[in-house]
Design a protein that fits this description.
11 strands; homodimer; alpha/beta
């Protein structure tokens, strides 16, 4: 049975905080599904894999895991429903804003603060086949433990670009030849199901749950029609509607 | 400044547990958005509204609230990010399984266990204009505090029917003249964007995150195409894709 050094144990604790992650350039992932994704997608980034003794997981580990007694593991995991695995990995490098865009359209998240929504959008972006995700700095850290869990580790399959704000992001879009920008609004704007050029070298911006997307010059407004009486859609649901409208246009005859 | 009696305080605590809710037929909602929805949708069901002193909320309350000191409120709320309001309401009556179906199609949730996903689906079902939601008993309690919060209180706008399992639910569907049943599967099946009769007096069954939808006789398999490499979609995202495909067919020219 192994044991963590005091330094390793305080590293695990530090990685649950944004500050600790930034200092170390590492991230912490608890959960079998997201952990296995990281292991299979980016084995080169693995720093440490910690397992609870007695848990049998079908994993092909490129590094020797640290196996802890159940008591020791549960103390370190600090997670009620832990599945007996903790993965520590180096954060993948961010992509430069001016690198060429290969995706047919660009998905932009502006100050999305809820880790569950944010992770769900990352997972869904991967499911529809996007390669890049664009963020503004006000978003929650995409490599926080909560976002890793709700994204099932899809952060390690996508490239992430981060801009200071929507204004500087718009400049990078223009430099990349992307001039059509759609902002989603709860009311008014063009119907997402009817806009013909929605996915043709465009950017689609989804915003902060509380205040919506910031203003942007020359952008078009996009609306998801809601026949029912809800005030607005959850931002992850809005992203899903838009991303799968893209899939529908690709796959439906 | 008011105070809760010992009995009231233990009621609040009990309502965070499934058992406590069942015994009292009440439910507890913390959160401004979901609380206000309950207050405006079903004032007749309100039992108690507890406010934190000093919090100013623009609410039209049909009953006299109990106002607690901040310290007292926070102790009772037991919620880190409380917005200063707790609502206790009687649970709306369930709808009988054999009541006539007015919605164009029926949404069925089978053993959905995650409160966040479950609540999001309820909120989205309301957003697209459905009136009913069908569940099997294995689902998490739709009136738990977590589900109320993630659904923004939409439970109080929909009617909920609960069947013991999919088999007995299928019988009620047949008795209602609904003979076409679709089960969503992660792979295989008819493309959701191409099925012509998807929303014509049909039932669409979404299942448990871990094991998927249970087997059903004479059902058709429904597939959401995923060009990317994700293993499967989150059940709330799958529901959103299907529900907004309905909206698209209604609203797009």
């Amino acid at each position: 049975m192994g044991a963590l050094s005091r330094r390793q144990e305080s590293l695990v604790r530090a990685l649950r905080q944004r500050h600790g992650r930034r200092e170390s350039e590492l991230c912490l992932c608890d959960g079998l599904r997201s952990g296995s994704e990281i292991i299979s997608l980016r084995p080169d980034l693995l720093e440490m894999v910690i397992l609870r003794s007695g848990v049998s997981l079908d994993l092909n580990l490129p590094i020797e895991p640290v196996i802890l007694s159940p008591e020791e593991f549960d103390r370190v995991a600090a997670c009620v429903h832990s599945q007996g695995i903790l993965v520590i990995a180096r954060r993948p490098a961010l992509k430069a804003l001016d690198e060429p865009v290969k995706d047919p359209f660009v998905l932009v998240l502006d100050r999305v603060g809820d880790p569950g929504n944010f992770g769900t959008i990352i997972r869904t972006a991967r499911a529809v086949g996007l390669h890049d995700l664009w963020l503004t700095k006000g978003c929650v850290d995409p490599f926080s433990d909560k976002v890793l869990r709700s994204a099932s580790g899809a952060q390690f399959a996508l490239s992430i670009r981060v801009a200071d704000n929507l204004e500087s992001l718009a400049k990078s879009l223009h430099a990349n030849g992307i001039h059509t920008v759609f902002r989603t609004l709860p009311a008014g704007g063009e119907n997402v199901f009817c806009v013909k050029d929605l996915f043709e070298r465009s950017a689609i911006v989804l915003g902060c749950e509380a205040t919506g997307v910031a203003e942007m010059d020359h952008s078009r407004s996009l609306n998801i029609p809601m026949p029912g009486s809800a005030e607005s859609l959850n931002v992850a649901q809005a992203a899903t509607v838009i991303l799968f409208e893209y899939v529908r246009r690709m796959t439906a005859v």
